[in-house]
Amino acid sequence: MIIAISANSSWNIYNFRRNILLNLEKKYNCTFLFLCPEDSYLNKIGLKKIIFKKIILKSRSIFFVYDIALMFQYLYYFLNYKPSLYLAYTIKPNIYGSFISNILSIKTLNNFTGLGTLFYTNKFVSIIFKKILKLSTRKSNFIFFHNQENINYFIDNKISSINKFILLPGSGVDLKFYNRSYFNTKIKKNSFIFFGRLMKEKGILEFLEVAKKIKKKNLNAKFSVLGKIQENEKDVIISLKKSIDENIIKYYGFTHYTTEIISSYECVVLPSYHEGMSKALLESAALFKPIIASNIHGIKEIIINNVSGILFEKKNINDLKNKINSFVNLSDKKKLLMGIKARKIIEKNFDEAIVIEKYNEILNKLKF
């Protein structure tokens, strides 16, 4: 049996889906047809039987010539390999891959971790993609979502049948890896780290601006940034370089040692504009970190305000600055308890085992 899987990178599959796929391989002894752009993470996933086919996928482009070409790539590979199931991740594989899989009557599971940049670019583009999305998912068997807001979007816009919707606790956290040994009391006091993709919509510019304001008055506060710069983010590159040159922040770039770095900081900050269910914050909370983040869906499900972290109004620089200053003024005991509460929330609600079990349940319904 062949299971096709597509995302905008094999890094995405490795980082968010690895244990789900290992479970499917063990249960069904299947071969995976990977359809994604090529990178170095494919061989790290650890699956025994993989057929990899490179596709040209421009994840943040709205140039429809590329998207038409992408549909033909899906058509070609689906016809040649005849998969029994298609698992779609990230926005364009969900839209264009599902459109083709539905035409060919391939069983399809969509996974919307968030609606992505394309739905927030402008009103005209959003209208077009809503219509395409409706065509693409009309025959899908089930659609996984990571927060209720995205489900409401599908319902309000009458995109798909409500009885297909499945709410997951994000992609979950592997608590065997993120175990309790990461509890760390030897941390940099008043240290804050931005953890996520470096793009405007993640609020990195607000973080850099607030770091500059606070550093002027509190030289003991430390600010750092951990993550990869996304393509076409010129404003972010300029602001980041300036912040580094002025010694406002320390920049780690993109690294495999995220757990060690995050563990050494007192607090994680994410001023994001929209989220599906933030994997960065799930992992940070699993590492016993208090979190200061935007009061939006995909974040507020993870954080109990003033208990396991602090929420602030998105895009509000003054509110973010005030909340960071209020955290600085908390006692060491209160900060420690916030981190412990954050970890308990992950253990109770976001264990990756919950996600894997839901996949097994759905596939049983599909009679695999």
- Please give the radius of gyration in angstroms: 21 Å
Look up the CATH topology of the largest domain. Answer: Rossmann fold
Mean of the pLDDT scores?
A: 92
| Distance separating the two termini | 10 Å
Walkthrough of the structure:
The protein is α/β, with parallel strands linked by helices and 368 residues long. The protein has 2 domains: 2-172 and 351-365, Rossmann fold, CATH 3.40.50; 180-349, Glycogen Phosphorylase B (Rossmann fold). Helices cover 43% and strands 18% of the residues. The protein has helices spanning 10-28, 64-81, 91-103, 123-137, 148-156, 204-217, 234-245, 258-263, 279-286, 317-328, 332-349, 352-365; strands at 2-6, 31-36, 50-54, 85-89, 107-112, 142-145, 165-167, 188-195, 222-226, 250-253, 265-270, 291-294, 309-312. The strands form 2 sheets. It has a 7-stranded parallel β-sheet, with helices on both faces. The protein has a 6-stranded parallel β-sheet with strand order 10-9-8-11-12-13, sandwiched between helices. α1 crosses α12 (352-365) and α6 (204-217) crosses α10. The longest helix has 19 residues, at 10-28. The mean pLDDT is 92.
Keywords:
single chain; 368 residues; alpha/beta; Rossmann fold; 2 domains; 7-stranded parallel β-sheet; 6-stranded parallel β-sheet; 12 helices; 18% strand
Layout of helices and strands, plus pairs?
Layout: E1 2-6, H1 10-28, E2 31-36, E3 50-54, H2 64-81, E4 85-89, H3 91-103, E5 107-112, H4 123-137, E6 142-145, H5 148-156, E7 165-167, E8 188-195, H6 204-217, E9 222-226, H7 234-245, E10 250-253, H8 258-263, E11 265-270, H9 279-286, E12 291-294, E13 309-312, H10 317-328, H11 332-349, H12 352-365
Parallel strand pairs: 1-2, 1-4, 2-3, 4-5, 5-6, 6-7, 8-9, 8-11, 9-10, 11-12, 12-13
Helix pairs in contact: 1-12, 2-3, 3-4, 6-7, 6-10
